[in-house]
């Protein structure tokens, strides 16, 4: 769980830093497959997405193991 929160916080701070220093967030990864191109993203966006996915995983599959 600490890893998930660290990823979300780190990604958010990275995007905030770009916004504060540059005025915009730099997106530099553009994935295309055949004729489809997906929205551009950056490492901070990936960290946020991975952190949220880990939090959801934790809630779905580990919430039943409550401490007495």
Could you characterize what this model shows?
By secondary structure, this protein is mainly alpha-helical. Helices cover 59% and strands 6% of the residues. It contains two helices and two strands; from the N terminus they run H-E-E-H. It has helices spanning 2-22, 43-61, and strands spanning 32-33, 36-37. It has a two-stranded antiparallel ribbon. Helix 1 runs antiparallel to helix 2. The longest helix has 21 residues, at 2-22. The chain is flat, with a radius of gyration of 16 Å.
List the defining traits of the structure above.
mainly alpha, 59% helix, two-stranded antiparallel ribbon, flat, 6% strand, 68 residues
Write a compact overview of the structure shown.
By secondary structure, the protein is mainly alpha-helical. Helices cover 59% and strands 6% of the residues.
Summarize the SSE layout with pairings.
Blueprint: H1 2-22, E1 32-33, E2 36-37, H2 43-61
Antiparallel strand pairs: 1-2
Number of strands: 2
Rounded radius of gyration (Å): 16 Å
Secondary-structure content class = mainly alpha
**Mean of pLDDT:** 90
Low-confidence stretches: none
Number of helices: 2
| End-to-end Cα distance | 19 Å
The strand order across the widest sheet is 1-2
Overall geometry comes to flat
The largest sheet, given as strand count, sense and whether it forms a barrel, is: 2 strands, antiparallel
Determine the strand fraction and express it as a percent band. 5-15%
Helix percentage range: 55-70%
Question: Would you list the SSEs in sequence order as H and E?
Answer: HEEH
